[in-house]
């Protein structure tokens, strides 16, 4: 099979001037036509196998001039015989062949309205093969139109992309080298382009809204970084600030992946703000820790000097404890040298103090051992002093307690001090109890107090006698109320009299 180009040969017919150009028969190609943009889900176009080119009859061998008998035989008309035609494959699109025709020279035309347009020629095959070839071209276009229609109906595909594909395919259909209802394909594409225009506008509006929201979301991230960068470096908790910055950068990266693509100028402007703020934070962090390192170095040097002074006190033992406490106060006023350094330095400083307090502890243990018999002696005196509370004669009780207190002082100091304070507290309670008894006795036997008591007793007795007379009169007069009041007055004054010992 071959399709002729525009050069006339004995086996081809030259196409009319308005016929589309075709490629040379050397490559057995069809007339050139623009390809429509393939939809994203369209399957690759199957290649139509070319029909086998019909074999040509061998040329007759040259011979001598025929005899009269041969001429007679040639003159007789031969009996008609039915031509043998190879069956052609039916068109893939039913009725597509109704839109095409093939003339005796293999020129193929397609019907467009009331006119016929030449689409190419197929001189080396049968008319059915020629028609089938161009019908297949139409089927390919129809398949592409159907694919775009299905994607449009199914949804999910970009309306803008489908519209571009339909527009490109529409340009391929118009004037296509194919046989079929090209006008119907063009109409379907026109309807689809119009429908997709509105969907594209809605899609573009949604895309703009999504982009606006993405800009707002990314701006929020930028503003958080800027807020972090605006904080006072001396007040920032840098561990938390670094974690916050890393989280914001991760949010930025995730937003780049998941959010719609931002306009280049907007994206660059936002990134510049983010990058500048992050750089500011990093510079402030480096400056802060650089300064902190200097502070730590100075504090470490000062604390090391204190440690050396504390360690030098070890030979003085317990006597150096006041001086060590002064060093401790100075230690508290110094800055920090970093957690690890501070822990190590404090361990050394504390160890130097432990040496001094250890010497005190050793002395205290020695004193406690020496104080054991004195503790037992004072405990015995406490038991002896408790008997004072049972002595009725206050002078004798005071003399007994004084003798016990003299023995108490002769025993001497007791260690530990807590035990001494506890024993002193017990003896103090006994002494206070005796003093309270003495105070009560003094008040009772004081001459002035007695005189006042006698005078009050006389007044109370006289008052009681007067109310007793009032009581008799009230009873004689039958005045119960006056009698009740007089009796209450008598009872009250009698109670006062008893209180003063009368």
Summarize the structure.
With 502 residues, the protein is mainly α.
Can you walk me through this structure?
The chain is mainly alpha-helical and 502 residues long. The model is unreliable at 1-92 (pLDDT under 50). Helices cover 65% and strands 3% of the residues. Strand 2 and strand 3 (115-121) form a beta hairpin. 17% of the residues are buried. The chain has a three-stranded antiparallel sheet. The protein has helices at 68-75, 127-154, 159-173, 182-229, 238-258, 264-311, 321-333, 339-385, 394-411, 417-445, 447-477, 480-499; strands spanning 100-102, 107-112, 115-121. It has twelve helices and three strands.
Strand content: under 5%
How would a crystallographer describe the biggest sheet?
Answer: 3 strands, antiparallel
Please tell me the overall pLDDT.
76
| Cα-atom radius of gyration | 64 Å
What distance lies between the first and last C-alpha atoms, to the nearest angstrom? 160 Å
Basic shape: elongated
Strand order of the largest sheet: 1-2-3
Task: Please describe the structure with a list of short key phrases separated by commas or semicolons.
single chain; 502 residues; mainly alpha; three-stranded antiparallel sheet; 12 helices; disordered N terminus
Helix/strand layout:
Elements: H1 68-75, E1 100-102, E2 107-112, E3 115-121, H2 127-154, H3 159-173, H4 182-229, H5 238-258, H6 264-311, H7 321-333, H8 339-385, H9 394-411, H10 417-445, H11 447-477, H12 480-499
Antiparallel strand pairs: 1-2, 2-3
